[in-house]
Structure formats: C-alpha cells, structure tokens
Amino acid sequence: MPLQQLLADLLGDIHQPAILWQALAIVLCVLVGWGLARLMHRSWLQNHQDQHGGLIGLGMGSFSRVLPPLLIFGLLVTTRAVMAHYQNVHLLDVAVPLSSSLAVIRTVFYLLRRVFARRGPLGEALQTFEKIFALLVWLGVALHIMGVLPDVIRFFEEHKLPIGQHKISLSDLVEGAVSIVVLMMLALWAGAALEERLMNVERMHTSIRVVLARMSRAVLILVAVLFSLGLAGLDLTVLSVFGGALGVGLGLGMQRIASNYVSGFIILLERSLTIGDPITIDKYSGKVARINTRYTVLRSTDGTQTLLPNEMLITGVVLNQSLTNRNVRAVTKLTVSYDSDLSVVMPLLEAQPKGVARVLEQPAPNVLLNAFAADGYELEVGFWLGDPENGQGGPISDVNKKIYALVESGQIKLGHPSIDTRLLDAHITSVVARAPNAT
Asked: Which regions span the lipid bilayer (predicted)?
C-alpha cells in the first residue's frame, strides 16, 4: 500500500540527516511565507490608507487570511523541487498537499465571503458549507496520501448513469457540478467587485450606476452558466426547450413578476426615481432607500421600510418632491390675537426661520395671512429646505421653538377661544325680572 510505503520511508529517514533538512526547510517556508504576507499587507495599508474603493483594494483586509497559505504552498513546492535533486523528500511529499488544501480552503471561502457576507456577519448556511467543503478537501488529501485516490477516480470514470438516450459517467457529473459552482462563485465575486467600483464613481448618475451593476452581474452569471454547461459536456441546444418553457411561464404564471422586473429597469433608465428622493404613493410616504430590479425600498421617517413592487411605481401616481427641483416648502401655522398689529407681527415671524439649520436663504421665508378665524388672525410661516430626503420635522420644530420664545417674551399674543355672552346676559336679566319677589 502507498500509505505503508510512505510510513516506511519516513521511518527510514528518521535516523538520517535528510529528514532534519526537510523539517528545517518546512519551518523556514512557514516563517518566510507568513512574514512576507505580513510585510505585503502592511505595505499595502501604508500605500492605500486613503483609498476606500477600487478592484485592487477590494477585500484586502480579509485577503490577508488567504495570502500566507498561498505563499507557504509556493515556497514548499519550490523547495521540494530543489531538494529532490540531492536527497529524499518524503516529508515534503506530505507537507505539500497539506499546505495546498489549506490554501484552497482559504481561497474559496475568501471569495464566498466577498460575495455573500461582505456587508454583514457570516450566515449559518455559509458556515455549514465551509465545514463541509473543508471536510471534503481534507478527505481528498487523505486519499491522496494513502494512495487510493486514483482508484476512486477510476471508479467514478467507469460507472455511468443513464440520462435519457445518453450515459454520463459519475466523474463527468462531479466535474460539471464543480465547474458550475466555481464559475458561478467567480461570476458573483466579479459582479460584487464591479458593483462596488461602479457605486464609487461620483461623476455617474446613481440610477445609471445601479443599472450597470445589475446588468453586469446578470451577464456574468449567464456567461458562467453557459460556459460551465459546456465544460460539463452538455449540449447547449437543449436550452432552446428551456427557453420556450420559460417564455410560456412568463406569459402565464410569471406575468406580474416579469412586469416588476421590466418596470425596475424602466425606473432606473429614465431616472424618474433616484436613491434619496422623498416620494408619496397611495398611503406610503418616505425616502427611496434602494431600487432593486423587482421592488423599491421606501424608508419612512419613523424608520420602517416598505417594499413597493416596481409595477406600482410605473402605473400609479407618484408624488416626487425632488424630481426636477430639490427645494421643498415647509410651513408652520399659528393664530394671533385680533389685538395684534400685523405690520409688526408678520415681519417678526418672517425673521424666525433665518439662521435655522437646513433652511435656505433663497427663496426667502415669508408669512401669509390665511384667514380671519374665530379666535384671531390665522398666519402661515413658510420657508424652504434644500434636502427633502432628511425630512421636515427638525427645521419646523426649531422654528416653532423660536416663535415660542417670542410668545413667552410677550412680543406675540396668541389668539384664544372667546364667546360673546351679551345675548345670554340679556336673557338672564329678563328671566330674573319676571320672577316673583321672594317674601
């Protein structure tokens, strides 16, 4: 057995200087690889400490976990090739596959983390998949060391499964599955990297950036699927049947879903809505937080999020407060006493919004006399805001506080409910006059 032969070789090398040189070479490769990785990471941080985007800097922090095993593996392979000309390298024959398996595991899950967990904690499903994948890789290394891996490969090649009119070997199925997983993972990683780079391009409109990111990811996934199917040996002409079935499905059961996807691209391309716009549709109001291809996320002022189907934004009436002009008018109303002098009160109120945070100087604030109410003059204090996506509650509250200070100082007298009791007094007097005198 190869494993027995390997153990015999290792035991035979124990009493020879060759195994000491191999052990020393392994230790040096580990130390040099780890040191080079630390040095490269520190050098990159010093040269790119002010840069937050770009494909070069994408995920460099988490890539520091991948770099050491890759460098160690490369150094071990080189050392083994050099020392094989002068002595036995049985110990290095074990160290090389072990280091390669660790490098494969770290690299694969660096890409998975960059795709599925780059903005949050690692999901439970991904952690479970990581453990299963690591177990499979270590199992393959163990089979290789034991020398039975060629027999396992031969078993998969010789046994075939009947699929329709063709027979496909187990090895072809495994290769196809692996190629699909790897290419899909690379496509998703490349799509995520391209999306992050596009979202950092300030000179491009937000909607255009979102459209390009979504379309590029879809194209990359489609190319990866087609290419992986070709590697698996499947005839791509069978996709025509699938395409016809998909068309029928879109025309029947998936009509609304397709409509939402098309509406999403229309919204992004015509720029009728952009991220940050304050909108109102039906009974929903809030700020556009995210525009996806199927739905749009609307975040209200109280922090709740509403998922609106994109078809609803295309077919319904949408109140967009910042489509062509971002300036919006905020108002606060109050009633002052009829004893007030409007020529003094109105300029005084007009000056209160000035100096409040987020209130624009132009257009200037103004005060309007809306009505002659029962309790006094009804006045409206209006002022303009240039950032409607941040809401109106804060500036209105600040203006009301300044008006309250005027009320407290007596410069403004608010109107109070009043009832004319003269008719009631006359009625009471007549009733008392007709009443008999008490004796």
From this structure: 20-41, 53-77, 89-112, 132-153, 173-194, 215-232
The owner of tokens 């890539």 is 63
Q: How far apart are the first and last CA of the chain?
A: 136
Condensed to tens digits (0 to 9), the pLDDT of residues 357-393 reads 888 888 889 999 998 888 889 999 999 888 776 777 7
Q: How many other CB atoms sit within 10 Å of the CB of residue 20?
A: 12
Return the C-alpha torsion angle 317, 322, 327, 329, nearest 10.
30
Provide the token pair at 265: 């691209």
Looking at the chain, how many residues does it have? 439
What's the chain's Rg over C-alpha atoms? 38
Type of residue found at 134: A
CA distance 42 to 23: 29
Interval 72-102: pLDDT, tens: 888 888 888 888 787 777 677 777 777 877 7
Answer yes or no: are the C-beta atoms of 354 and 295 closer than 8 Å: no
Q: Is the dihedral angle over the CA atoms 164, 168, 174, 176 positive or is it negative?
A: negative
Decide if 162 contacts 184 (C-beta within 8 A).
no
**Angular region, 412: left φ>0, alpha ψ -120 to 50, beta rest:** beta
Q: Are 26 and 98 in contact (CB under 8 A)?
A: no
pTM over 0.70: no
- Cβ-Cβ contacts under 8 Å for 273 (sequence gap 6 or more): 207, 267, 279, 288, 291, 296, 313, 318, 320
Domains within the chain, CATH numbers bracketed = 2-147 (no CATH), 235-324 (2.30.30.60), 328-409 (3.30.70.100)
Neighbours of 245 (CB within 10 A): 10
State both tokens at 323.
Answer: 């489509």
Q: Under a CB-based contact definition with an 8 Å cutoff, are residues 116 and 126 in contact? A: yes
**In terms of C-beta density within 10 A (0-12 exposed, 13-18 middle, 19 or more buried), how is residue 210 classed?**
buried
The whole-angstrom separation of Cα 359 and Cα 174 is 65
* Token pair 């070789």 in the structure block, residue: 9
